[in-house]
Design brief:
Layout (H helix, E strand, L loop, with lengths): L21 H25 L1 H14 L5 E7 L5 E7 L6 H11 L1 H10 L10 H9 L6 H7 L3 E3 L9 H4 L3 H5 L4 E3 L1 H4 L7 H14 L2 H17 L5
Parallel strand pairs: 3-4
Antiparallel strand pairs: 1-2
Helix pairs in contact: 1-6, 3-4
């Protein structure tokens, strides 16, 4: 796998809308589960001082909760609460509503990508956390709980399911990941449709070896901040 965005898979070998073969998913599930648990436990143990420092900076950099929990869709469509270091202002909902009401360009970008290139909701410490992907570190706890995997599609909210169309079955076939093909294949530089294509390609074709490759490439992407926002 090259982890580059492209069109959704078509043709005789892989029919559009066809979910990932359950047998193949089960074949790699045990090795993937062991890898996930060991990796997550090691990460939480070794990064404990970093996590503590971020928590302190986040608490005093912008008064409010240190962590942010948001309901996402997990494997088999089961909802779970994804944990991050809070990167948005406590009044982020009001800030977004005012922006979308007064800025047509921002409204178009939000409706298209569910993201904003210059997001006024993000507080200064949170901007650094997002640029460096440090806001994602608490998700290792989600991995230990079994809600997420180290590698997989990015966890989506309920409103995003329709954007996967028939490919939502592919998304639900595996646990969502902390990192994945989207993060190393362009991140915010690719469109949402291309993101779906990357997720479908990963679910249908990736092996455990591909997971190792994605993890290694993730370190390079984080260091260069490629596609970060």
């Amino acid at each position: 796998m090259t982890f580059e965005a492209g069109p959704l898979p078509t043709g005789e070998a892989v029919r559009v809308g066809r979910p990932a073969p359950r047998a193949r998913v089960r074949d790699i599930s045990f090795g993937k589960l062991v890898f996930d648990k060991v990796f997550a436990a090691f990460a939480l143990f070794t990064l404990a001082p970093v996590l503590a420092a971020i928590a302190i900076a986040n608490r005093f950099g912008d008064r409010g909760p240190v962590f942010y929990k948001h309901k996402r869709i997990g494997q088999n469509g089961k909802p779970f609460y994804c944990v991050k270091f809070r990167s948005m202002r406590v009044d982020s909902a009001e800030v977004l509503a005012e922006l979308l009401d007064t800025d047509p360009a921002a409204r178009i970008e939000w409706e298209r990508d569910q993201k904003l290139t210059d997001d006024p909701r993000i507080h200064p410490v949170g901007r650094f956390l997002r640029k460096t992907s440090l806001d994602e570190l608490p998700q290792f706890w989600n991995v230990l709980k079994g809600d997420m995997s180290i590698v997989g599609p990015r966890p989506i909210i309920g409103d995003e399911a329709q954007r996967y169309g028939h490919h939502f079955a592919d998304y639900c076939a595996v646990r969502p990941g902390i990192t994945g093909a989207w993060q190393v294949g362009g991140r915010n530089l690719v469109s949402y449709d291309e993101r779906v294509a990357l997720d479908v390609d990963y679910v249908r074709n990736a092996t455990l070896l591909d997971d190792f490759r994605i993890v290694l490439k993730t370190f390079a992407v984080v260091l260069t901040q490629e596609g970060a926002s």
